[in-house]
Amino acid sequence: MAKRVVLLGGGVGGSMVANQLARQLKSEILSGEVDITVINESDVHVYQPYFLYMAFDQVVPVDAKRPERAVLNHLIHLVVGHAERVDRDQKAVLMADGTAIPYDYLVLATGSRPAPETVPGLQDGGHIFYTEEGALKLRDALHTFKGGRIVVTVGVPHKCPVAPVEFTLMVRDWLNTHGMEDSEVLYTYPIGRLHSLEPVANWAGEIFQQRHVDSMTYFNLESVDAENKTITSLEGETVSYDLLVAIPPHMGQDVIARSELGDAGNWIPTDRHSLQMVGDDSIYVLGDATNLPISKAGSTAHFEADVVAGNLINRIHGGLGSIRYDGKVFCFIEAGADQATYVKFDYQNPPKPQPPSEMIHLYKLAFNKMYWLSAAGIL
Ligand SMILES: Cc1cc2nc3c(=O)[nH]c(=O)nc-3n(C[C@H](O)[C@H](O)[C@H](O)COP(=O)(O)OP(=O)(O)OC[C@H]3O[C@@H](n4cnc5c(N)ncnc54)[C@H](O)[C@@H]3O)c2cc1C
Questions:
Q1: Residues 6+ apart with CB under 8 A from 207
Q2: What is the DSSP letter of 274?
Q3: Is the fold of 3-111+253-316 the same as that of 115-250?
Q4: Does domain 3-111+253-316 bear CATH number 3.40.50.720?
Q5: What is the pLDDT of residue 374?
Q6: Do the bridges between strand 276-277 and strand 280-285 make them parallel or antiparallel, or are there none, so unpaired?
Q7: Residue of 16, 37, 48 with the most ligand 1 atoms within 8 Å of its CB, for mutation
């Protein structure tokens, strides 16, 4: 009987693992020894980093989407539907339509979601560019903005560790180039520095000063008063805004909670090196869904995909699956003014942001277009 590998989630991590398996296990799939299925609730694959650019009308939704089928190798089965629950006793994913998809190996790549409902008033008073709908609403609001104070308030954990800093610098640039140089930009962060990664916090502090961005630390957003246009922090500070942009704390997906696989935030306990779910060696976890204290980024999912795919291939061939993830993450950081920098780090080596340049900005724009090759496993 075929060894069944099921990937729950066909976003960055799920599609990359599946494509590597399909390429490297081609003969086993063709001979019926291995079977690979991706389950995704949508038949559209979305490139989320484009939401940042969508807010500034630099890209439109069609640029950020491809059919999920077109991203996956033709040897992979695609099931489009909502997974209700993982049943570890039955070793099956139970779908909302009542079907069960059995597995020998399961890869959980369900991602994360912003949870604005956890902050009273935020959904009425704030903009959130972390979804297509939110990015488009913010785009429209920026186009009718007449000046004043833009507040960018950040909650943790959230995906893409640097997107809030990127948005802050890009919106400063946007105000400057749209005749609103006198408008203020204020960035708030919940801990005692401007970013969870200390070198990025130091870098952000310097560039914020050069670009006239104000900041507040120890600001944990407690509530939004949409009528009076103010936000209040748990620490007791109240700040007024003319346009509010929030990156709310994120949570893991509800399917993880329903399956009782996660912690209070629906993050799945994961071994930091093997990427196996703690306590179940038939389940691997990657991308945003893990509870690992590393950045929730597409590049994280990308590097983890090499480890998960490598270990699955090794185990299917009779090995022990000993490849280890070293915590590698790579992120470009848009810095506004047509410049960008990047950070690369892992469990042992902290990031060292370099001075921003136009060349790195152009490279980020090129990478955005190349993403589709990397998701398809060609790059
Ligand atoms: C504005 C923004 C900018 C970003 N910029 C960058 C960047 O510059 N660089 C970078 O590296 N990262 C960036 N990211 C982060 C990156 O997009 C995510 O970290 C990455 O997509 C995580 O990959 P994943 O595979 O874990 O989850 P995802 O890619 O989110 O995929 C999860 C998949 O699981 C599916 N799913 C979930 N629940 C179910 C269910 N119950 N049933 C069926 N299917 C389900 C979803 O439909 C989805 O397709 C950015 C994100 C945003 C929002």
A1: 169, 213, 335, 356
A2: T
A3: yes
A4: no
A5: 81
A6: antiparallel
A7: 48
Residue 107's DSSP bridge partners are: 7, 284
Ligand 1 centroid vs 17 CA: distance in angstroms?
A: 14
Q: Which of 159, 251, 342, 371 gets mutated to test ligand 1 (max ligand atoms within 8 A of its CB)?
A: 159
Distance 177 CA to ligand 1 centre (A): 31
Query: What average pLDDT does range 364-379 have in this prediction?
Result: 87
Q: 0.85 cut: is pTM over it? A: yes
Residues 6 or more apart whose CB falls under 8 angstroms from that of 318 comprise none
Whole-number CA gyration radius for the chain: 21
Give backbone dihedrals phi and psi of 29, rounded to 5 degrees, phi first: -70, -45
Q: Is 111 in the pocket of ligand 1 (CB under 6 A)?
A: yes
The distance of Cα 157 from the centroid of its chain, to the nearest Å, equals 11
Helices (H) and strands (E) counted in the chain, each on its own, are 11, 22
What are the residue boundaries of the structural domains of the chain, listed by start? 3-111+253-316, 115-250
What's the CA-to-centroid distance between 49 and ligand 1, angstroms? 9
Domain 115-250 has CATH 3.50.50.60: yes
Question: Is ligand 1 within 6 A of the CB of residue 331?
Answer: yes
Q: What is the rounded average pLDDT of the residues 146-159? A: 97
Q: Which residues contact 254 (CB under 8 A, 6 or more apart)?
A: 266
252 CB burial (10 A radius; 0-12, 13-18, 19+): buried
78 Cα distance to chain centroid: 22
Q: Given ligand 1 and candidates 110, 247, 267, which is best to mutate, with the most ligand atoms within 8 Å of its CB?
A: 110
Which structure tokens are listed for 3?
A: 């060894």
Alpha helices in the chain (DSSP H): 12-24, 26-30, 50-54, 68-71, 122-125, 132-144, 163-177, 198-210, 254-258, 298-316, 358-375
The residue assigned the tokens 């640097």 is 162
| 240-259 confidence digits (pLDDT tens) | 999 999 999 999 999 999 99
